[in-house]
Amino acid sequence: MQCRLGCGACCIAPSISSPIPGMPQGKPAGERCIQLDDDNLCKLFGDPRRPKVCGDFVPCEDVCGKDNAHAMWLITELEQCT
């Protein structure tokens, strides 16, 4: 599965404990990453400062669902279970 450009669910729903430029303590679940632009695209894509956890994320139907809203729901549910 390929990432749906402009979704941004993986940059909003989960917590990220790794430092992010502009968010040195990472980000809590449900908070929009500061590096997510107005089009829900990562400003750090391809940048070596991008956290490894973000670069390692592989989109799949189990996490991304059938549309952006479903992805947000699925990732939020996974976050709450962990």
From TrEMBL:
InterPro entries for this protein: Puta_zinc/iron-chelating_dom, UPF0153_domain
The organism's place on the tree of life at top rank: Bacteria
Record-linked Pfam families: CxxCxxCC (PF03692)
The protein's name: YkgJ family cysteine cluster protein
Organism encoding this protein: Pseudoalteromonas rubra
Taxonomic lineage of the native organism: Bacteria, Pseudomonadati, Pseudomonadota, Gammaproteobacteria, Alteromonadales
